Amino acid sequence: MTTLRVPVQPEILDWAENRSLQDGELLRTHFPKLDDWKEGSVQPTLKQLEDFATFTHTPFGFLMLSEPPVEQLPIPDFRTMPTERYERPSPDLLETIYICQERQDWYRDFMRDIDESPLPFVGKETIRSDINNVADEIRRTIGMDIADRRSYSTWQDALRSFITHADDSGILVMCSGVVGNNNHRTLDPQEFRGFALADALAPLIFINGSDSKSAQMFTLAHELAHIWLGSTALSDVPIRNGAQNEIELWCNKVAAEILVPENVFRDTFSVDASRDEEIQRMSRAFKVSSLVIMRRMLDLGYLSSGDYWDLYHREEDRLRSLPKNSGGNFFLTQAVRASKRFTRALIVSTLEGHTLHRDAFRYLGLTKIDTFNKLGQSLGVI
Predict the structure, then answer these.
(1) Which residue has the higher pLDDT, 332 or 33?
(2) How far apart are CA 109 and CA 182, in angstroms?
(3) pTM to 2 decimals?
(4) DSSP assignments along 331-363, one per residue
(5) Residue-by-residue DSSP string for 225-245
(6) pLDDT surpassing 70 at residue 2
(7) Pairing of strands 194-197, 204-208
(8) CB–CB of 227/124 below 8 Å?
(9) Above 60 in pLDDT, residue 332?
(10) Which helix (H) or strand (E) holds 313?
(11) How many angstroms separate the first and last alpha carbons of the chain?
(12) Cα separation of 255 and 242, whole Å?
């Protein structure tokens, strides 16, 4: 029996390898004939090519093209200049955006079916709006003030409550450090920290859960500002220098005011205390990154530019060295990954027969009905 072999352009194989960001040696360990395929001395079998597509996270159809495709981000890119590693969007980033867009499309249709009204705050503001007023309104709308946040004993508790309040206000907040439910595909905060998909019926915020908890607080606040602008965008939320983009600069200022209001900061900050100790104390009090506190000190005149940069680089190195937390309850994690609001609505719609189990499983990244039912029980909808 003749083995079916598939011709592939060498340029396509090069493109798929570079796009995957996989280690070259590891790739050739799994596909020892890869260089032979590129030279054209031998062609891969259909099974080998399917395995190669899976391993490199490449849509199989792309491997059949005559020349490499140009992949564009499906949403506006407001990040600062990406690192050399991410000159093109990674498969992990692209798939994460596509997953969120699918979920948003489903939820928008769901909201229309139940005759829900558009949310009045989406797109309500412009970058000419007063930053302090917008920050006050966002805090009031999501129902979480400074005293609430400062009362939590841990970063995790404060972040979880912040996400819950935003989700309860009508915004689908999804926080995950991996692609879908694949724990082997970790999202890199160096590529992006979050994005917002603005929509009057189904606004969505995604937070890169691989980032530190304190940094995630700032990302959520930043993306909330995008929702109030009605601005869909991919962000890396650079605290160090504000931002070059006018919209990102405005969103950063709103985020800082949401988390660390100027009047509260001035009343709380002690100029007589040790500077390093005061930065850490303020960071713990407001449940934000020490980098955010340092930026507020610079903006409000408590730090010179030279001192700020010295402290910033030192603190950034320290934060990178801290261990990352992992593990936890699967069902709690899953609900946060896909948004509690979205997950509840999807499960109810499925149980009522309006959505196929097959589609619900795909949106949630699940494979078993038992897991689906237990997830519903954990959220109180079964």
Answers:
(1) 33
(2) 27
(3) 0.91
(4) HHHHHHHH-HHHHHHHHHHHHTTSS-HHHHHHH
(5) HHHHHT--EEE----TT--SS
(6) no
(7) antiparallel
(8) no
(9) yes
(10) helix 305-321
(11) 53
(12) 11
pLDDT exceeds 90 at position 244: no
Average the pLDDT over each of 226-230, 239-243, 269-273, 341-345 and give the range with the smallest value: 239-243
Structure tokens at 311: 């402290």
Quick one: pLDDT at residue 215?
A: 85
SS3 content of the chain, % helix, strand, coil (to 5): 55, 5, 35
Name the one residue in this structure whose structure tokens are 């400074």: 146
Q: 344 Cβ partners below 8 Å, 6+ apart?
A: 379, 381
For the chain, state the CA radius of gyration: 23
If we measure between CA atoms, which residue out of 337, 381, 341 comes closest to residue 110? 341
CA dihedral 142, 148, 154, 156 (to 10 degrees): -10
Is the Cβ–Cβ distance between 100 and 197 less than 8 Å? yes
Q: How many CB atoms lie within 10 A of CB 100?
A: 22
* Residue 353, CA distances (Å) to 160, 359, 374 in order: 31, 12, 18
